């Protein structure tokens, strides 16, 4: 580390560039799994929380954060995992939610069902399965354009 | 062995053994969507196992880790309820087994969120969200299959009749339960029987299934006294890597 004035804002900014390994269109910050960043002298502590307790992406996320910060010259990194407060889809950033839909994943809705088809925006939808390609998603289908799509479960 | 350690093993082993049973469906479930659902449910349960057994290992303070507890204990050291270790048989039995478990797990974990033990409360807070989602799915699937064709209804009834004698053990309080209740760590399991029964009755009636009359209850899983012959076979598969290559890590 050459600069002695590493700020927490700077670390957050670097983390903004770390993609979620399973939904690479959003960052780990957008996903809301980074809960805290603190910098003391040159030591950085990043606190992360799992989306689902068995989410296999968590170890990859931890590794990606380590790699990204090491690239920026961070040599003293402490990665802390906390489970409380439990992750909720309320923590997805507004930016992340918009990107999800563009990517073809219906963002979470408080009502528990997707609002519209991410492809054609139709509201004629049917549930295919309560689970999708990752623990955080369910499988839905649009009965207008007939395309299946992932729905980000609301928890 | 401390009562808290014993209690934590029960939580972890329930999740681990049921999680492994669910994972056995991976690649062979009746439909792709069900395959994915079962694999994801298994994943949630294995994740919860890591939390429970991780804390158990800390409490034991004997240098063991969650992995050691999962992969290097023999059947008699397991503390799961018998209901979760019986073989899958068919898709119907698996879903009925999961439903009977979820119907207990949701009120149980909800109560544990108020535990006097902060770590227990934290793990429960994380897990209960997943459990609620599991119950939603398992209850709906039990109804869909029970209220389905004559064949699916008969299979669900057979599954229920088979599993019913294993449900009594869930609510049979013992010394560990008494100690946990006294310390405010967990309520007595028996205090949740009514809530569980209500969910069961509602779902079975919507599923056109009949609750068996029998009050006979198998026991011995939660104490480790007498597991079924099935657990050893399951562990042989689950633990083979750590048994063949001790201390192997990813
Ligand atoms: Zn559409």
What does this structure look like?
The complex is a heterodimer of chains A (155) and B (250). Chain A has 155 residues and is an alpha/beta fold. Chain A has two domains: 8-89, Fe-S cluster assembly (FSCA) (GMP Synthetase, Chain A, domain 3, 2-Layer Sandwich), CATH 3.30.300; 104-152, no CATH class. Chain A is built from four helices and seven strands; from the N terminus they run H-H-E-E-H-E-H-E-E-E-E. A four-stranded mixed beta sheet of chain A has the order 4-7-6-5. Chain A starts with 7 loop residues before the first helix and ends with a strand. By secondary structure, chain B is an all-alpha fold. Helix content of chain B is 65%, strand content 0%. Chain B contains ten helices and no strands. Zinc ion binds at residues 117, 119-120, 122, 142, 144-145, 147 of chain A. Residues 117, 119-120, 122, 142, 144-145, 147 of chain A line the site of zinc ion.
Query: How many distinct beta strands of chain B?
Result: 0
Can you tell me the CATH class of the largest domain in chain A?
Alpha Beta
What proportion of the residues of chain B is helical, as a percent range? 55-70%
CATH topology of chain B: Ferritin
Outline of chain B, from the CA principal axes? Answer: globular
Give the domain tally of chain A: 2
H-E string of chain A: HHEEHEHEEEE
Q: Averaging pLDDT over every residue of chain B, what do you get?
A: 96
SS-based structural class of chain B? mainly alpha
